[in-house]
Give the backbone structure.
Amino acid sequence: MSLWTAAEAAAATGGQAVGDWQVKGVSIDTRTITPGDLFVALKDVRDGHDFVAQALEKGAGAALVSHIPDGVAPDAPLLIVPDVLKGLEALGRAGRARMTGKVIAITGSVGKTSTKEMARAALAGQGRIHAAEASYNNHWGVPLTLARMPADTDYAIIEIGMSNPGEIEPLARLARPHVAMITTVAAAHLEAFGAIEGIAREKGAIFTGLEAAGSAIIPEDLAVTPILRDAADASGAIVIGFGDQGMARPVKAETTDGITQVRARVLGETLDFTLHTSGTHFVMNAVGVLAAITASGADAKAAAKGLGDWHPPAGRGAVEDLGGIRLIDDAFNSNPTSLAAGLATLARLTGGRRVAILGDMLELGPDEVAMHLAMASDPSMPAIAVVHTAGPLMQNLHDALPQDRRGTHAATSAELARMVTELVSPGDIVLVKGSKSSKVSTVVDALRRNAQTTRSEKEGQ
């Protein structure tokens, strides 16, 4: 079944189609391209036009280009447009226009990708589901997701991110969601926004893209909730708050062995569900997801059951057993809000010594030192036996910790990774967390290698 024919793609983009082709997917990477895909020659670190010949050799059905690249025959299957990114946007806009199902858009400072995957799992079985892959949430990720969307999609889940002012509104207007959800607003990308209120206003811009009588799902318990509510009201949205006092709220949550049983009240309906995690922030986001799904018109009870099939993505709070230790791999992102949530998850787990291995929280702006220092007073800290740190900013937390909780500090995560066997012991429960650029994931890799070596040695005895 084709996704786009040459004629459809040319009409969508105003481009010139060379040949009478059809494609069944859209790709921007020759490393993962599959036969029959439309290869989009975007410019990034390298110019995608340099890879068009390779894409066609790998079986691409056509390529979206701004000119015929060197080494590509003039009669090769192409779609020629003045600007490739704008062409992709136009294709995404057309993909959205021909789809008659419901669109749910998700943004937030923390938890966008995991919440998107929750929604995907919850909606499974309720029609044809289309969702963003990985963290495809930026100026090329959103149009790519829309361009890949089959016309007969029943529910689409679009993730929308930002790192600078003015990025969310055009993406929201491209996606035109029926329901838009904000997971939370936290001190992330503060360098670009100056204050958390600026971040809230940018997040609230997602509501400008809502379809008529659309629903805005907002966190109810934040200091900046009034900013989000004002943004939703300005867009004429139906506002649904989630949180301890919201129209969607958890009533009870009990965790045993890393699995949480939850009862929630969502828009007047009592829903029970299971999450394969112990993080309370995941519980709250799941309640928000159920509110969004209910607002979209899907079956809420079936969605609650579907949440039991969701697992935290790698690097985003998944708990795994590694050769005698329990690892919470949360090495993909970090800011004060998400770090506090990670520490709370660690504090709730029982059965061993609790160890935190933390890399720098980045892009926090002029108060970054104070924010690292403040984590020493986090309410979960007394439950944690030792905190190991890496990076110049985490040096501040290291110095502020009491002596009995102060572990090893290293200049880099790589240095800490080389000492990993000295940092943890069998039976420990270990949280590894930091901003992606802090590269604290190298510690996770070292822990996994050590566990594999230990396992191999035991099997060889």
In short: The chain has a mean pLDDT of 93. The chain is about 35% helix and 25% strand. The longest helix spans residues 441-460.
